[in-house]
Amino acid sequence: MKKREVYHVIPYAKDGWQIRNERTDEIISVYDTKQEAVNKAIQNSKDNTPSRLVVHKENSRIQVLYTYG
Question: Is the pTM of this model over 0.90?
């Protein structure tokens, strides 16, 4: 059985948002807006099921959690 990938959308530097893979601690991509990052992270999560997406607030606390597959 394939291990569940976990992606996080978290603040990046001062004015950006990053998608990070929890298992590898790799930054997958960086975006100017949170909405852009969330949209891409949702697509990545759906394309790589089973997966989980954790979206954080600007203060790094968890805002919402999605599970796919």
Answer: yes
